[in-house]
Specification:
single chain; 202 residues; alpha/beta; 7-stranded mixed β-sheet; 8 helices; globular
Length: 202
């Protein structure tokens, strides 16, 4: 398998309306990456769409679960297949702006103490209206003590996360026993393993 720098993990459940848009935003990143779509036993045409995309692009892979296992377990399935030095997470109903992965990759490559890179976000309505900036709602904290603030509130949305694959594997992946806040649990664990860097741009 071709060596990649970044493995993008995308769980997808009944995502036929948004999957194309999410995938396209990963293809515009201009970085050596693979996209692993985990179709979590969708009841709509998600599997058909994902399969067609994978047949078109060599760096896109699809894993179909036998039953619905939820976002945490789906992400863990993708992580098991990941070939990249780094991991990035994107849900099937979110999008990245061009340059997102490149900016985060450069931070990681230049700071071996960094365990997680996040960035700002835009919340957008279904009709495309920009509602608010993420950092305006929850002030982000960088550095070695960011985990302490994460105990109080989560300022790291899942689509902003860029981290090291070996750290996630060392933690044991996402805790599949947690019904809620499994993402926050992971960010706290990663933040305790090094520095959190916040990129202020969306």
């Amino acid at each position: 398998m071709k060596k990649v720098d970044v493995s993008i993990i995308m769980p997808a459940y009944n995502a036929e309306r948004t999957l194309h848009r999410a995938v396209y935003s990963t293809l515009k990143q201009k970085i050596n990456s693979e996209l692993i779509i985990i179709n979590d036993s969708s009841a709509d045409s998600t599997q058909k769409i994902a399969t067609k995309i994978a047949q078109t692009y060599d760096n896109v892979h699809v894993l179909n679960t036998e039953k619905n296992i939820g976002a945490s377990a789906a992400r863990n399935k993708g992580i098991e297949l990941a070939q990249g030095k780094y991991l990035a997470f994107l849900d099937a109903d979110d999008v990245w702006l061009p340059g997102k992965l490149t900016a985060q990759f450069q931070v990681m490559e230049n700071n071996n103490k960094c365990s997680l890179v996040s960035c700002d976000t835009l919340q957008v309505s279904p009709i495309g209206e920009v509602l608010r900036r993420g950092h305006a709602l929850k002030k982000p904290i960088s550095g070695n003590d960011a985990w302490k603030t994460l105990l109080r509130y989560n300022f790291i949305p899942t689509p902003t996360v860029f981290t090291r694959t070996d750290l996630v594997l060392d933690i044991g992946g996402f805790d599949e026993n947690l019904v809620i806040s499994e993402d926050l649990d992971m960010w706290i664990s990663l933040a305790r393993k090094g520095e959190v860097v916040i990129i202020p741009e969306v």
